[in-house]
């Protein structure tokens, strides 16, 4: 077996331990999305949680902002291999929103204003693991990064953190979303490199 | 989809001062669709590995794949691929990847491709696939570059202009024979909407700007597919 890529010297060794396998750190904040950026004014924004029996609870922007806010500082990991350390957000824990509905569902589908969807086990968005965020790094979240509000679920690849999110639908069965139907892993754990269907 | 396959560099072509196309031979390559990409994995002598994604520049062609690499100053992977990986040496590739930013000649209707700089690479695969097909649906390529030195595939695009409406838009330095002065893409540069499927690839700022123009020109959001880098 011949040697691979002769003369190649990597640069990111120093970050091992904090970087999931196959990632590299970035100081910038790349933008990735499948289509044009929607621009949703906050006075037309609302967020709806719908249960498996069709009951729903909706918050306007002002109602959402009146809920208890948290300021998580987390590392985020994109499936395109960049990781960004110590990102600071402000938003509402999904625990607060999900506490308002009765459900026995095991899964959630996050829906966005542009039609994007992504699926998650309910246990991955509860117990302090996920936020509806509207502030990044001290400023209102910009549209290209998912503003006015997006999900932040740092322990999964960042495509799970739906931008321009408009609601959660609780489902008893797992329903793959946009990227999950287009070749990407159903769960997306960065530490297990769950990138594609085959991983 | 299987895992990593060995890929042997057979040819490197300079496209610009810092842009290269690299042809690799990959045994039992399963084929791919225009617009898809691969992951490329490099392994250092100490076992350290680094992986980046690169767009496929040509339609499937037996065991050969062509990748476009824009060297990023100080980058960990791209300068090595662009200039240092010896011909006949190997890397590993995984793919094809990506099921969304793809176009095939069976797709009905007009096609509008808009590239910024090295964003031409996946669109070149679409353009080449279209030229190799019997498709007679109208196709327009708008190619935005800073100046004439930044044009990839210059000769091939000149000959493709017989079959495809191709416009080069210069943002900083326009040559004397350019049909418009230097400047970023404006709504006046866009062809009529006509229900075109649109593919936009380039740096983030470019893609954001062009997508907004397309929406303003009446293109449906679900007909605009984007790929951003940087």
TrEMBL record, chain A:
<dbReference type="InterPro" id="IPR000572">
    <property type="entry name" value="OxRdtase_Mopterin-bd_dom"/>
</dbReference>
<feature type="domain" description="Oxidoreductase molybdopterin-binding">
    <location>
        <begin position="35"/>
        <end position="179"/>
    </location>
</feature>
<dbReference type="Pfam" id="PF00174">
    <property type="entry name" value="Oxidored_molyb"/>
</dbReference>
<dbReference type="InterPro" id="IPR036374">
    <property type="entry name" value="OxRdtase_Mopterin-bd_sf"/>
</dbReference>
<feature type="region of interest" description="Disordered">
    <location>
        <begin position="1"/>
        <end position="20"/>
    </location>
</feature>
<protein>
    <submittedName>
        <fullName>Molybdopterin-binding protein</fullName>
    </submittedName>
</protein>
UniProtKB/TrEMBL annotation, chain B:
<dbReference type="GO" id="GO:0051537">
    <property type="term" value="F:2 iron, 2 sulfur cluster binding"/>
</dbReference>
<dbReference type="InterPro" id="IPR001709">
    <property type="entry name" value="Flavoprot_Pyr_Nucl_cyt_Rdtase"/>
</dbReference>
<protein>
    <submittedName>
        <fullName>Oxidoreductase</fullName>
    </submittedName>
</protein>
<dbReference type="Pfam" id="PF00970">
    <property type="entry name" value="FAD_binding_6"/>
</dbReference>
<dbReference type="InterPro" id="IPR001433">
    <property type="entry name" value="OxRdtase_FAD/NAD-bd"/>
</dbReference>
<dbReference type="InterPro" id="IPR017927">
    <property type="entry name" value="FAD-bd_FR_type"/>
</dbReference>
<keyword id="KW-0001">2Fe-2S</keyword>
<keyword id="KW-0479">Metal-binding</keyword>
<dbReference type="Pfam" id="PF00175">
    <property type="entry name" value="NAD_binding_1"/>
</dbReference>
<keyword id="KW-0408">Iron</keyword>
<dbReference type="InterPro" id="IPR050415">
    <property type="entry name" value="MRET"/>
</dbReference>
<dbReference type="InterPro" id="IPR039261">
    <property type="entry name" value="FNR_nucleotide-bd"/>
</dbReference>
<keyword id="KW-0411">Iron-sulfur</keyword>
<dbReference type="InterPro" id="IPR008333">
    <property type="entry name" value="Cbr1-like_FAD-bd_dom"/>
</dbReference>
<dbReference type="GO" id="GO:0016491">
    <property type="term" value="F:oxidoreductase activity"/>
</dbReference>
<feature type="domain" description="FAD-binding FR-type">
    <location>
        <begin position="2"/>
        <end position="103"/>
    </location>
</feature>
<dbReference type="InterPro" id="IPR017938">
    <property type="entry name" value="Riboflavin_synthase-like_b-brl"/>
</dbReference>
